[in-house]
Each structure stands twice: as structure tokens, then as C-alpha cells.
Amino acid sequence: MNGDQGREMTAGALITIILPTFRRPRMLSNAIESALGQDFANIELKVYDNCSGDETAGIVAHFADQDDRVKYYCHPKNIGAAANYSYALNEVRTPFFSFLADDDWLLPGFCRSALGEFAAYPAAQFVFGRTLLDSEGTLLPSDSARYAPGFYAQPGGMLTLLENRFPPWIGILFKTEALQEIGAYVTEADGIDFGFLLRASHLPFAVSDYDVAVFRRHSGSSCQHLPLEMVWPSHIDAVRAFLDSPRSSGVAPNVLTPALNKYVSWIVRVACTSALRTHHYEDARAAAAILREYFGKHNTGLMLTALGELMQRSTLIEGCIDTISSWRMSRS
Predict the structure, then answer these.
(1) SS3 of 46, please?
(2) Domain count for the chain
(3) Which domain holds residue 250?
(4) Contact between residue 175 and residue 115 where contact means Cβ atoms under 8 Å apart
(5) SS3 content of the chain, % helix, strand, coil (to 5)
(6) What's the pTM value of the predicted model, to 2 decimals?
């Protein structure tokens, strides 16, 4: 199914919160509690278990016994993160939906504040507020804090999204009708959330002046280690597909293409510095080579390559860089 074709809305809930999960039962409890703790009650929470094979089912059942807004589906085998999201998208039967990761959580006013923006700006197809970063118990602003509240028409909105970087999708409420334009699917080939948000970037949107969600930074999150394979070539493939689609037609190619390349090169650089921080030196070398050879960032690529060589050859330098990196991460 593509978009809302053949989709019939169900009476009752106004918002579906999609919560895919895999083997994070303890974090999952916190995510579920945050969804059920919204100050807007007219929701349904759909948990899609990617065949965890642990206590996940029992934890969800505990919540479902107490609150009939909780629905649970477990795949008979692990189908991969992207396919799990796509399955969930095609099950949405409410006017609005959002994504919630099993290691993050929503703040109580997420739904109500987003619906307020939709009421103020009926043309908006999605709304987001500020998502915070949880760094060892300290809440820090994320990139979404770069956005001024208000309505963003197109084509200027697309360029604003690229300039300020996409907000985490856990803090976004979408109109389900927007899937007609975005497509009711995500794939590893286009970077999962990156590809989905890129396809959504040509739609009008609004930004609320509220803190709406928290992105948890932990050892298993992409904030701590962003593998190059999650970024390349999926993100540049998503860019090529986007540029070939009608979605990109609102902005002149000589403006849009450099903006997209700048965005992806920044993500590759993040993957490179992440690899250095976690001592994945082969990934770091590969990412630095991409920066040099594909994006023409010769000085940056050479500097990161040299830094990796120094760290790999000297435990003293490696330790110093680790200390500086940890200090910067705690304040970023």
C-alpha cells in the first residue's frame, strides 16, 4: 500500500503512536509510560515487537491489562528495523501518527501541543517541537532547538530543514494523509529515518514552542557510535532518488544539490568522528576517504585520517583524545 490508498480510518483514537522494539524491555517500559502519560488521552499505542524472544511480551501485556489503548504485535521472526517500521505505517488507521523509539520517551505535552499547531496552521502536514538529549541524566537541547516556532511554507521550509538538520522523528506528529506524498515505507537503502524525513521535507510544516520528547544517549545508541554502514551509501542514494523525484522541483537544483551534499557530508563527518571516538579505525579511514574523494573536503579528510593514525599508533594520544571527546560529548 502506498500512502492512504485503501486506508480506512477507524473511529475512536485520534493519534497512533508507533513503538517498534527489539530486546530493550527495561527501556521499553519507560517509553510506554511516557506515551500513556500524555495529557491528551485520545491515542492508541501500538507496540511492534521484532521477535525479541525475551520478557518484552510480558512487559507489554502488563500495560495492556491496565490500559486498552495499548496494542501489541510480535513478528514470528525478525524482519529488520526498516520492515518493522513499514509494517507499522501500513497499520495506521487514525488521522495522525508519530514514531517513538523503545529507548526514548515523550514528554507529557507532545500530542496536545502538536494538535494545537495543526489547529493554528491547517495546511501543515507535520509538526514538531524541541527534542532534548539525555546525556547521563542531564537534559541538553538537540538540533531541533535551532528552529523558530511558527509555520514553514514551501519551498523555503525544505531549505530550512536542510540547513538546521532534520529533527529527531520521535518528536514529530504527522497527518496520516501526508503518507500519500511521503510513502508509507522506510528502507535501509535510504537510511530509514533520513529517507523518510527527506521525502517529507517538501511538505509544509509547523514548529511548536514546547519541549516534546527526549532522545536517550546510551552505549547502544547512534549518539554514541554511528556506524558508517548506517550512513553510506544509503544517505547519498536517498539524495539521488529525491533529486530525481517531483518532490525536489520546488527548489532550483543549483541551490538544492549543494544543500543536500552539505548535509550528507556533515553526517559522514559525524560517522568519522564517532568511529575515532570508539576506536573503529577502519570506519574512520573509510569515512575520511569519502569526505576527500566524494565531497572534495580534502583538508578535513586528511586531518581526520592523520588523527586516526596518531591515535592508533600512540595509546597516550588515544587517551588524550578520548578524554577531550568525553568532555565535549558531555556538553554537546
Answers:
(1) strand
(2) 2
(3) 228-329
(4) no
(5) 50, 20, 35
(6) 0.90
